[in-house]
Each structure stands twice: as C-alpha cells, then as structure tokens.
Amino acid sequence: MLDSTTIHMLVEGTGATLYMTLLSTFFGYVLGLPIGIILTITDKEGIKPNAVVYKILDFIVNILRSIPFLILLILLIPVTRFIVGKSYGVAATVVPLVFAAAPFIGRMVESSLKEVDKGVIEAAQSMGAGTMTIIWKVLLAEARTSLLVGLTIAIGTILGYSAMAGVVGGGGLGDIAIRYGYYRYQTNIMIITIVILVLLVQILQGIGMMVSKKLDRRQH
Amino acid sequence: MEPIIELTHVSKTFHAQNGEVEALKDISLSIEKGDIFGIIGLSGAGKSTLVRCLNLLEKPTSGEVIVNGNSLMSLSNKQLRKERQRIGMIFQHFNLLMQRTVLDNICFPLEIAGVKKSEARKRAMELLEVVNLSEKAKAYPAQLSGGQKQRVAIARVLATDPEILLCDEATSALDPQTTKSILSLLKEINEKRGITIVVITHEMAVVQEICSHVAVLDHGNLMETGSVEDLFRKPKTDAAKRLVLSGFAHIGEMKGERKVRVTFDGHTAFEPIIGNIILEYKTPINILYADTKTINGNAEGEMILQLPQNEEIADKIVSYFKEKNLGVEEVDDYAR
Question: Which of A154, A143, A144 is nearest to A26 (CA)?
C-alpha cells in the first residue's frame, strides 16, 4: 500500500514531531518553571509576597495565554526569523511553540506548587530554611507528582500545537497530514499520521503517569 | 532562674478585607528556662499568633520579643534563620514532608543547618530511638498513625538540639490515649534535655498534665499568668474560670443500676423537673428514652431515666417525682 519513500517520509515526520515536541517542552520548562515558581512565591499567600512582580508576570502570562496558537505562530514570524534565521521548517516551529508553551507551563507549575501544604512550608521556615531551600526541597520536591502530571499534559498539548505548525510549513506529522491528506486528497496518509499522533500521545501519557505514580509516596 | 523568652508590649494587628483585626493586644510575658509553659485560650483567642511571634513566623506590629537574649526583631534575615534552629516547633497537623521517608524528614533540619549527610543520618537514627520509632525509619508519613507522625515531628525538631520547643496544639488532632503518650514524651524531653517547652492548647487537661506555669489568653488579651496550681485553685478572671470549668466536661459514665419510668401529662410539661432535680441534688441523670404521645386528645409523655448510683439520692429523686404528681415506676428490663 505504501512505497518506501512514503514510509521514509512518515518515519522522518514522526522524528521531526518528536524533536519539535521535546525540544519545545524542554525550553518551555526552562522559561515556564521559573515563571511558575515566581508566581507562587510572590503571591500574597506566598513565601516572598510581592504584588508588583506578581501582577506584571500574571498579566504577561494571561496575554500570551489568550492568543490562539495559530495567530501566535504568524505573529512571531519576525522573532523566529531573528532567532533561527528562517521562518519555516522544524527548528523555526520550536520558537512559537516555546512562546505558547512557557506561559501555559508556568500556570501549571504555579497550580502544582500551590497544592503544597502551607503547614509544611511553615515548618521549614520554623527550622530556619531560606527561600531557595524551600523552593528546592519543599515546593518542588513535595509537588513532584503533580509537576510530572503537568509535564505529561504539557507534552501532549505541545504535540498537538506542533501539528498545527504544519499549516505554515512547520514540518513533522502535521505538515505531512496537511500536504498529503488535505491538499492532495490522500486520505490514507492522513489517517496514518493521525494514528501515529494518537499512539505518540498515548505512549507519552502512559509513561508520564506511570513515573509520577511511582514517585508518589503519599499512598501506602 | 533567668527568663529565656520575654515579650514586652507585643501587639499584632492583621489587615483583613473587612477592617483591622487585633489578634494580640499589648502582651507582656516572660518564660523561664526549663519551664513547661502553657498558653491556654479558646479558639480565636490569639494563641497561634502569639506562639508564632516567638520565632517571628508572625512579625509583631509593635513590641519586643527577646529569645535566648536576642531581640529577634533586630536580627537580620540570616541571623534570624540561624536563631530559628534553636527554637523548634511542632504543629497540630504534624507538617511532615510527605515525599520523604521518616529518616529523611528528621535529616531535613540538619540539611538546612549544613550538617554532613552521613552524620545527619546517624543523628536521625539516634533520635528515632528516643521517640521509639526505629523500625519506621524507611516508612513514609502516609503509612504512619497520627501519634507516630507527631513522634517523627518531635524527633525532627530535636535534631538541631534546640533550647526551646514550641508546641502549637500538638495533641489536638490525637485521641486521648495518644495525647497522653505524646505529653509524657514532651515531659521526658523537658526533664532529660532541659528544653524549655511552650505549649499552646485549648484544653485545660493538657495544661494540668504537663505545665508548670500558664498564661490565659482571651480575645487577644493576656488575662492572667501564674502557676498551674494557682490558676486551678483560684482563677481570677472570667476567662480563666471558664477554662477551668471546661476541664470538668468529662463526667464519666453513669454507673447507677436503677431505672425508672416517669410519665407526665400536658400540665406538667412546662415545669423543668429534670433540670430542677439536677440542680437540687447536684447529680447527673441519664435520659435513656423520651417520647410524647397523644392519648384521648391529651398529650402524655414518658421518659426512662437512669438514676445515680447513690441509693439515698436515688430514693429522694423518686419521691420528688411523686411529690410532683408524676407517675413513677421502677423498670429493670429496659435494655439500652
């Protein structure tokens, strides 16, 4: 049914999708994790309340979160060109993906960290723990299960976004689905890409949930 | 004896959405070294705020807090963190790190203090022995009972060899049996290690059990301080009296064997007969059963009462009912 060039293309597309997804998730966390931490500790209930910092960051995150990804993709073309050198292709898709993912990841990190029992934080303070110790050894350590669930959700979402980048020639499975499935009416290729995408999400989700469960010590 | 904790004119005002709340009003207090000092008050009295002023988890709005000879408010952040290592605190809900083993929980304050890992583990194992939980070293807090969790918290707080131990309602989430064992552990710690203990509680029983001195707090005001004996014998303020009386809430199980069935009609229903009996004979009566029925258009009530063990009083109660023209008959086959 499929010739070797098509198979080769699909394998390469899967690789490109995974590459975009994982790279964007990584950089998404490089930006999003500090955003989430700062939002948590500068909140008025946090360990370093700071209304100005919180409000500014909160505003930026909300703005970025409310722009639909497809629009952000186009809006960021000059920025992408500046960073990567061109506005299409796999590497170029990573830039808008990171911009879309970081605020979203920041919010998820914030909500995970805010789940940590205030009493435990207070106990750490009573022992003389400083801000950095509390962030590392209390907030991030105690919220690790929730953070990993968040990571799993983030990967799934970014994978979905990366397929959208196909519209502007972003590469990967989404790109193949649009070019072959939509423009050339090759429904079979469209269906195969969908199956691969579903499988990828399932596998990543499964691994994420398994690891987070394994690391959770709150149950017997 | 010199005071190890001194509060002078400490006030704390919270700015809530609907105005200001004065949690503490001009509190001056001194606690002596080696003491077990109780701070008692009903909920909302300001106890938790007060105890948090002793390690500056809450910053007083005004006044001075002197602990171990240092004025805490004048310390830098770094000095304050150092000082907090000498002021341990345990909590009502234990506040253990849920993702760490028991052993690693006890190592936590040592990590903060910068103690080497191997040394910290050794010290943690020793402390687990002190609190009788050596076999739980590798367990996680979720696998422990409330009493065990509080023991871990106590071991954790002892890790840095504090001079002072603050207990914020440390036994309020525990059953009476466990409360007793935790209190005796605290007493032992106080005696063996000479650690000054400040106990925050709403239960007079806790104060009576372990404290030598006590302060009564009511609506942010310090009502009175003194030895526990003095408070118990002659409480000076209303707040103190109320707290002392609340200690008698447990009257214990009724032991009397005699039961009577009392019947009454609508006319006597307005007289507080049971209440009068309790007041008159200063003894509890147990109502086992009560009902009202309409018989031939009249309200008829019946009650089955368990009389006190004292035969003389029981007889008097029966004759009291007869005097009031109520129907009384002894029943002995009423099962609870």
Answer: A154
Residue B102 has a CB neighbour count (10 Å cut-off) of 28
pLDDT-derived band at B250 (thresholds 50, 70, 90) equals very low
- Name the residue facing B81 among A120, A128, A138 (closest C-beta): A128
Of A119, A123, A220, Cβ closest to residue B142: A220
Share of chain B above pLDDT 70, in %: 93
Q: Which residues of B touch A142 (CB under 8 A)?
A: 97-99
For the whole model, what pTM was predicted?
A: 0.79
Q: What tens-digit pLDDT sequence spans chain A (220 residues)?
A: 678 888 999 999 999 999 999 999 999 999 999 999 999 999 999 999 999 999 999 999 999 999 998 898 889 989 999 998 888 888 888 999 999 999 999 999 999 999 999 999 999 999 999 999 999 999 999 999 999 999 999 999 999 888 887 777 778 888 888 888 888 888 888 899 989 999 999 999 999 999 988 888 886 5
B109 and A144 in contact by Cβ < 8 A? Answer: no
Are the CB atoms for B144 and B152 separated by under 8 Å? Answer: yes
Cβ of B100 and A217 within 8 Å? yes
SS (H, E, C) A45-104: CCCCCCHHHHHHHHHHHHHHHHCCHHHHHHHCHHHHHHHHCCCCCHHHHHHHHHHHHHHH
Measured CA to CA, the distance from residue B61 to residue B21 in angstroms comes to: 12
Which amino acid makes up residue B120? A
Distance CA B115, CA B122 (A): 11
Cβ A127–B97 below 8 Å, yes or no? no
Cβ pair B87:A126 closer than 8 A: yes
Burial class (CB in 10 A: 0-12, 13-18, 19+), A142: buried
- Kindly determine whether residue B98 and residue A219, on different chains, have CB atoms separated by under 8 Å: no
CB of B75 less than 8 A from some CB of A:
no
Chain B residues touching A119 at Cβ < 8 A:
91, 93, 95
Tokens standing for residue A80: 């992408």
Q: Does A216 touch chain B (CB under 8 A)?
A: yes
Provide the token pair at B89. Answer: 């605190």
Report CB contact under 8 Å: A128, B84. yes
- Rounded to whole angstroms, the Cα distance separating B166 from B324 reads 57
